[in-house]
Every structure is written in C-alpha cells, then in structure tokens.
Specification:
single chain; mainly alpha; 88% helix; 0% strand; rod-shaped
C-alpha cells in the first residue's frame, strides 16, 4: 500500500502546526481529552436538570390534585354539617 505523505512530510506538518499553535502534539491531545470530558460533564448536568424538572412538575401536579381533593372533602363536610 502506498502512502500519500512520507514520514518526513508528516514530521514537517507536525512541526509547522506546533509552531503555529504553540502546542505540542501531546498538549493538543490533552486539550481534546479535557474538552471531551467537559462536554460529557455538561451533558450529564443537562440530563440531571431535565430529570429534576420532570420530577418537580410531576410533584406539582400531585400537590395540586391533593389540594383540590382536600378542598372538595372539606366542602363536602361543610355541606353535610350545614344540612343537618
């Protein structure tokens, strides 16, 4: 299998990129790893807050229905006491 770029070409490109960016290949790799970890952490945070919002919304509905039932029950008791 023939290669398009020789080892010398690859080394020359790597040297130019290092000179241009100021980062060595290892530093560049570490930068990508750190950025990947940051993206994963942000994704986990977004998923966490999405779950929290869903749970809070669900509990708000349950609380509202409970309050509605409580009010209906006391209205029923009031109507019975008033009628006797």
């Amino acid at each position: 299998m023939s290669r398009i770029l020789s080892d010398e070409d690859i080394d020359a490109i790597a040297q130019r990129l290092t000179a241009f960016s100021g980062l060595t290949a290892e530093e560049h790799k570490n930068h990508h790893e750190a950025f990947t970890l940051w993206i994963e952490r942000q994704t986990r945070r977004a998923e966490f807050w999405s779950k929290v919002e869903q749970q809070v919304g669900g509990w708000a509905i349950i609380s509202f229905l409970g309050a509605l039932g409580f009010a209906a029950w006391h209205g029923f008791l009031w109507a019975i006491q008033r009628g006797t």
